[in-house]
Amino acid sequence: MAKTTERKSDDKKPLAPRVAAEIPPLRPGDTVNVQLRITEGDKERIQAFQGTVIAIRGAGRNRSFTVRKASRGFGVERIFPYSTPSIVGVEVKRHAKVRRARLYYLRNRSGREAMLRERRVEGESRPKAVES
């Protein structure tokens, strides 16, 4: 006897993106400050993770970006999904001029070697130096 499989009409519906923080357009090389909602027991707090965007992958709901920072002499990378509710906000601190979509070569560099050249963006004003 042949087994028949039933298909639900719900299986074909596209998944709606989860409501999360508004994330500005990011590019590899951008220095970002990601504010995360951390829950410890019954307490919540906001924790910042500042670093360089080294990769952006995926599309739609599955999109994510990888941020790398140096902490106490060690490189720390963290992958953030765009649609996670734990991200409170993302602030772009500076843009860098890069010629790659994936900046994995930064893993082998430290200190001044890992610095990226800044990219000027039209319409953004730079803070002026204060005269003393």
How would you describe this protein?
The protein has a domain of 83 residues: SH3 type barrels (Roll), CATH 2.30.30. It is 0% helix and 37% strand. Strands 4-3-2-1-5 form a five-stranded antiparallel β-sheet, with no helix packed on it. Strand 3 and strand 4 form a beta hairpin. The chain is globular. It starts with 30 loop residues before the first strand and ends in a 38-residue tail after the last strand.
Please describe the topology of this protein.
Layout: E1 31-40, E2 43-57, E3 64-71, E4 74-81, E5 87-94
Helix count? 0
Q: Outline, from the CA principal axes?
A: globular
Fraction in helix: under 10%
Compute the number of strand runs: 5
By CATH, the architecture of the domain at 18-100 is named Roll
Strand order of the largest sheet: 4-3-2-1-5
Strand content: 35-45%
| Distance between the ends | 89 Å
Low-confidence region ranges: none
Average residue pLDDT: 81
CATH topology of the domain at 18-100: SH3 type barrels
Q: What's the CATH C level of the domain at 18-100? A: Mainly Beta
Q: Look at the helices and sheets and give the structural class.
A: mainly beta
SSE sequence, one letter per element: EEEEE
Gyration radius, in Å? 20 Å
Major beta sheet, specifics?
A: 5 strands, antiparallel
